[in-house]
Prior knowledge:
13 helices; about 400 residues; alpha/beta; Rossmann fold
Amino acid sequence: MSTLPTTPIDVSSLPRPDVIPRAVMRQLLGGGDWLSSWWSVVGAGVLVVALVVLAVVRRRRRRRGWPWVAVSAFVTVLGLGLTANVIAGYVPNVLALRVSLASWGFGEAPGLKHGTAQERGGGSGQGASTATHVPAPADLRMPTDSLTWVYTPPGYDPAGTRRYPVVYLVHGSPGASGDWFAAGNVAQAMDVLIRAGRVQPMIVVAPDVNGTGPSPRDTECLDSTTGGSQVDTYLTDVLVPWVDAHYRTVADRSGRAFGGFSSGGYCALDHGLRHADQFAAILAMGPYADPGEGGHAMLATQAEWDAHDVMKYAPTIALPSPLTLFLSVPADENSMSVRHAAQVATTLAGRGVDVVWREEPGQTHTWTMARATLPYALVTASEHLAAS
């Protein structure tokens, strides 16, 4: 494990992103329904109390009260689940739930014809989202049933001449490719930011970085040396060329960003820095700085693990210029991962990397934080990626 900095890391000199106007943020953070509402939690609590009272009354009258106790227990579990979801922000609405279930292999992927995980009418100002399988050679040992979600912006024409920069977003662990389109609601964010003139039209790609072998749900985007998937090779040699071949992309590093949240944020740092010849911008949201237990399962030796410890190699790794790093952390945490992120940010800034630092106010390490910080990551990417 990376060693903890013994003194606070001063990030006061790092640039912050411009504040997104409140009116735009209101549009970005909307779209929830009863699955993400505290009113649903309150309603479930009131119902539990009513059912318990009814069960007690029936018991005192020597009537069977156990059915009401069973119903009360069910509603209690439902209420606890709703409470956890409201706090974590993983499933903001019913359609997002369908996206998540499809990404986990339960049911068909819903068509998001409006480019968003919100039910709303179509229009010329809205993009489109699709889910597809990007096949990998058998020797990479990647899952054969995974989905990759792709957002194309308003006006995208596969037969046109315009080319678009691409933002790749990686999910956390446990997680699946649909997380950025469900919990992250990235298509809604892109639609709103494009209409507001805050970002240029961009393609967004969310791959599945789960694998097979010893650590199928926590690959850390690594090439396994213990018999598991070759995720790093899949991303560099399969996914990016496939996207460039099937979409009208700016097909070089000047038009690509690589990002993620949580363990996906670690993927963004490690994969993005080690493949900076392929990406001009890195978007690390709530990241870790080392591959953790997933890395120990994926890699056979401590030396291999150490080679993927970002804090160890950040001072010396060869990097192209220009390179942009957007790094955001929850402002309400003083955890080891936050301090590690600050150390990585200051180290790379000292080496000439264009670092943008954001502390997300009122947030902890949840998908609510990821959804709140994503617009700032997208704006940063847009400012540093080339258009056609």
